């Protein structure tokens, strides 16, 4: 009578695929961590912008102070041209993302590169505008608010350019595909946020001033 094979000591207690390291984090939301992190970050940045807008409208509405201060002038034409540059970059960013989703590597590369160049141009024009302005941040409350809001937005543009640079390098190395393009999508959300915030910054600081609506 044949005897049954005796398993090796401890073999019956070992799982087929043993897990090493800490357990995976519990996900209580269906939103992907990358999107959730970016959305929470954007919400916090909106609150920061709101603090500056509150100070701006307090000066203009409550104190009824002139904007800009008397004897000062804002370059409206330059602001309009720069707005066109930034809004165009939103279109090229969308083009890059759609190209990634469709597997169009050339469109992805050109879209990201063009967006980066447009964003760099916007930032360069903004810095050049600072050089030729007739007032400084410390001259009056209006100057402080203007430089604070536009500088805050410019800082966000700079962060967006860093994200775009990283995404562009990865695109040229062939890291994205129609199934995996989070590295383009998440920076794209941030870039569109930067563009939307410029609508409020430009509309408040430049257009309301030129039209005398406040």
Task: State the gist of this model.
This protein is mostly helical.
Give the overall form: elongated
Uncertain residue segments: 10-14
Number of helices: 5
| Largest sheet composition | none
Strand residues, percent: under 5%
- Please count the beta strands (DSSP E, at least 2 residues each): 0
Mean pLDDT: 86
Oligomer designation: single chain
Can you put this structure into words, describing what you see?
This protein is mostly helical and 214 residues long. It has a single domain, classed as Four Helix Bundle (Hemerythrin (Met), subunit A) (Up-down Bundle). Helix content is 69%, strand content 0%. The protein contains five helices and no strands. About 2% of the residues have low confidence.
List keywords for this structure.
214 residues; mainly alpha; Four Helix Bundle (Hemerythrin (Met), subunit A)
List the helices and strands and how they pair.
Blueprint: H1 33-62, H2 76-102, H3 105-132, H4 141-172, H5 182-211
Helix pairs in contact: 1-4, 1-5, 2-3, 2-5, 3-4, 4-5
């Amino acid at each position: 009578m044949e005897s049954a094979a005796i398993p090796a000591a401890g073999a019956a207690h070992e799982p087929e695929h043993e897990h090493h390291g800490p357990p995976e984090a519990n996900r209580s939301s269906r939103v992907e961590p990358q999107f959730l992190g970016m959305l929470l970050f954007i919400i916090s940045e909106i609150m920061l912008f709101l603090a500056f807008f509150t100070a701006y409208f307090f000066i203009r509405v409550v104190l009824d102070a002139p904007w800009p201060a008397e004897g000062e002038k804002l370059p409206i034409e330059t602001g309009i041209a720069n707005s066109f540059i930034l809004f165009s970059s939103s279109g090229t960013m969308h083009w890059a993302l759609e190209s990634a989703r469709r597997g169009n590597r050339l469109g992805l590369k050109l879209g990201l590169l063009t967006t980066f160049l447009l964003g760099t141009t916007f930032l360069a024009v903004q810095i050049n505008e600072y050089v030729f302005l007739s007032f400084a941040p410390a001259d009056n409350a209006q100057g402080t608010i203007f430089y604070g809001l536009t500088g805050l937005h410019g800082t966000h543009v700079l962060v967006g350019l860093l994200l775009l640079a990283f995404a562009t390098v990865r695109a040229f190395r062939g890291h994205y595909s129609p199934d995996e393009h989070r590295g383009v999508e998440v920076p794209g959300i941030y870039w569109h946020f930067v563009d939307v915030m410029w609508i409020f910054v430009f509309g408040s600081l430049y257009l309301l001033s030129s039209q005398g609506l406040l």
